């Protein structure tokens, strides 16, 4: 759906987070429509700037939706809600409106989107950074923080968007170029199951045209399976393209860089960079110049972020870690003694591989579990980790857990405390940023 379809229509905006508020502001400031109602799942305070517009919650929602022309849902509102299933033909999303606007009304702009279960934020940020330094005007937005609605009025050479499964699930348009980092078991409740999650993620490219393209990590089995029948697919992490091997990134037989030359940590980032450089090569840009540019790219906050070192103990904030696979990648990225702090909101994830990774890495000296998934993680670790030199602790607060981890490593002469939750933050924190900031505050108060 395009924004010009909204003119003078009665519109319901469902969800009053950042995107919901931004679309209301846009509709009003651009005089698209003044006939707006607000909808939110739970009872909340009406935003003061929208005082004149009615707000409906709970059981009030269904009859309101019957009475509007168009429903604009925010990413947190599942397309599988019965109310939206009933009104599919008049439902759109902020993301769909923005992508349609950019693709159809900005002919000189290439729309590039990156998705995946993990690694998409660093990937889009690195890609946008290199494109800017190569001399292009680049807009970066989407799930990474800046709403896409803020980009649609400007002229860009490239718009680089991070797109979540929530945002991709009902798109009516696809980007010119897309990339998938990986596909793991996450977000099943929103999607009513893992199968829907995978299909919703891949829906990002469902509307690509024949001359458009998307890149897939050949090393990820689920990603390969769910994209096997789509003709626009190109592969990366293969020996005849860009691929990662140990700590090095290659283009065919040509070694491009070693992870230690970059400011970002984590060997798993090389897998994702294989896809990023595949995009640059597809655009016929100078990949060797881009490699040198990348060496100045700063890591994003809350992604393997070094917080402090105290008495030979280094504290790493990996609050962005919302899946066991992210923690596994983090564990493999470091040497020396490690104490992990893990736990968050239960998202029906399987921690067996996480536990097996701990069993196979004698550098992991202890794991401290917390929050809702703490008991589940602890139980899985007990079943799979049998090393005599390993300690499992079920913690009751982040403050005590950080202090305990610090003491454990001081007794061993030093090491690294890795805060890698493996689970979402919701229910305990507003988002992973608030969670990461809490960890930083705790570390600084030691």
What's the topology here?
Blueprint: E1 11-14, H1 18-29, E2 36-40, E3 55-57, H2 61-66, E4 70-73, H3 82-86, E5 91-93, H4 94-105, E6 110-115, H5 120-133, E7 138-142, E8 158-162, H6 165-168, E9 177-180, H7 188-191, H8 194-202, E10 213-217, H9 221-226, E11 233-236, E12 242-245, E13 248-251, E14 254-258, H10 268-282, H11 287-294, E15 305-310, E16 313-317, H12 324-331, E17 338-342, H13 352-359, E18 364-369, H14 374-384, E19 391-394, H15 398-411, E20 415-419, H16 432-444
Parallel strand pairs: 1-2, 1-4, 2-3, 4-5, 6-8, 6-9, 7-8, 9-10, 10-11, 16-20, 17-18, 17-20, 18-19
Antiparallel strand pairs: 12-13, 13-14, 15-16
* Ends distance: 52 Å
Rg on CA atoms, Å: 23 Å
Q: Which class of secondary structure composition applies to the elements?
A: alpha/beta
CATH topology of the largest domain: UDP-N-acetylmuramoyl-L-alanine:D-glutamate ligase
Overall pLDDT confidence: 92
- What's the helical proportion of residues? 25-40%
Largest sheet: 6 strands, parallel
